[in-house]
Fold this protein.
Amino acid sequence: MTTPQLDDRHIQALVSGRHSDPFAVLGPHHDSRGEWIVRAFYPDAQAIEVIAADNGATIAAMTSIHADGVFEATAPSTFDAAGYRLRVEWRDSTLEFDDPYRFATSLSDLDIWLLAEGSHHRPYEQLGAHVMACHGVAGTRFAVWAPNAERVSVVGDFNLWDGRRHPMRYHIGCGVWELFIPGIKPGERYQYELLGAHGELLPMKADPYGFAATLRPSRASIVAEPPTAAPALGKTRQQANQRNAPISIYEVHLGSWRRAGDHGEHYLRYADIADALVSYVQHMGFTHVEFLPVSEYPFDGSWGYQPVGLYAPTSRFGSPEDFRALVQRCHDAGIGVILDWVPGHFPSDDHGLGWFDGTHLYEHADPRQGFHRDWNTLIFNYGRAEVCNYLVGNALFWLERYGVDGLRVDAVASMLYLDYSREGSDWVPNEHGGRENLEAVAFLRQLNERVGIERPGAMMIAEESTAWPQVTQPPGQGGLGFHYKWNLGWMNDSLEYIKHDPAHRRYHHDGLTFSLVYAFDENFLLPLSHDEVVHGKGSILARMPGDDWQRFANLRAYYGFMYTHPGKKLLFMGNEFAQIDEWSHERSIDWHLLDQPEHAGIQALVRDLNHCYRQTPALHECDNERAGFQWIDYNDAEQSVIAFIRRGASASSHVLCISNFTPVVRENYRIGIPADDVSHYRELLNTDAQAYGGSGKVIGPQADITVESVHAHGFEQSLTLTLGPLATVILQPV
């Protein structure tokens, strides 16, 4: 192409870092006479030569046309514009390298079209920093979406963090800025420097698509190759996520599960976590682990729920490769991996997504839609196709590149309602005058549909705390398309019930039973998560009333009720051994408590509950189907006893589940049972066993309980048993 005249306007724009089209003046061009002109801009350079790429021979010495580093040379007609290098003489050294401005774009027309349309299924394959070879030259291509910026540059150690040195090429069709820089290898730190929509210099930004990042307080991204694509989920791993499978999740905050150092002052590395965590989860019988968000985040106290680098595993515990190895270690042990994922909001840190190109690019401009008062965070603009594309692509990135088995989507309720945590006129109704965020609904449906197409068998879990209908129904049937929904109603009601003194529980009996009214409206998961052991709530054990023995017995009975109640299971770390203190992200959970028999007993119970749950089809196969549950008695409020049947897919597969939530031993307690072809039952598990710290009022796994032709609870048959104090019992047919 013909080069423009390099007048004062162009020169001043270059040296001041305000040239929005550097490829129009830098690199090789034909002048009006058809001769080759090569221009370069290197502040502080003493001299520059154009040299042959193959042998380093000088082709032309460049002339300084501006003291701040603008150079120009005329090359012979035989000049190979696609095969030259620059030899730059500095005050203390001389370097040879390829000219970034001699390379054509490597973004294809199709990629540009799809990015502009917001329909690129894997935008991370084009945006971000990609190590590659261009025309046989090794380097890194940088690309970032910033449609309203006047100029965008890559800055890093390699150019002294000087935004004048590597301004990028703008693709007007899609709003993407792109530049291939030869010689940049993995491990280099970088950021983007932008002039905003009005020419203002913005704070340097981390790469929204950066695949690695430095540890806070540093704010840089790191050039890193994304992991190679993980294999598709095999039949075994797909089945492990299905509704008829046992799903018992161990929720883990990687920074405080265990710590290193004499006083627990250091984080464990991903590899160290894998060594300890995988064997522990296997021993405890959990089927999956769920990690609190691992995307890079600046503030430790957010626990990862205010991410800046959605595509970068946090560097707190090691490299992206180390995290991928942790996931693989879990898979090798038959443990599924779920990540907490945060598409609902992001922090306002100035190196993050907020005001990215000098406009409200990722967030809504109207603070009534774009600012979250509860968390002082910014809310994604789900009405913008490129933003939804960014998020859907990120979900696929974790599922496809790190091979995780599912995502638990955080704070879905805050996304669904325009008036969430807002009062009066502090919200904007939708086009129909309603409170539903129609754009967020469309995004969630798009997300779940795309995951279903691209990653069959992966599970999507909604943390949704309201009565929004059909969260776990397919979008084609009017649902949101999630596979599971956290049952926060069960969690709130049951914890409220269990905190009452047993003498008063008779007045709150519906706290136990109400969840069964709606238990099959969605595919539910029962969570006792990190949210229930922070912010002054205390530990789960701390909610239990009575003396020490009763507190632990209450907890054992409650866990037994949880594992027999329909729905998949989730326990936050520390819950499995009755952590006493409220969880803190700044220290390890209290493993020393296992030296005390009562805590070791709770741990042993949870282990046995997990194995019982997994090995008993009646406790998991029909978790989300009405046919899998039948009440025996929900009316015994006076004695605070409930009894029900859990059924599996097979007509003969069932167990009886009875919970006594008082410290009174119930002798000869009669339980009605359906007229199945069963003459005897046997105890499968009893939370009052001495091995768990109980009183030992158990029947024993070898003792048969005879079915009698005695009418009870509306059934023609029944049996009697002794219910231990504060105990849950599971009986199986012999």
Observations:
- The chain has a mean pLDDT of 95.
- Residues 8-102 form a domain with the Immunoglobulin-like fold (CATH 2.60.40.10).
- The chain has 13 helices and 38 strands.
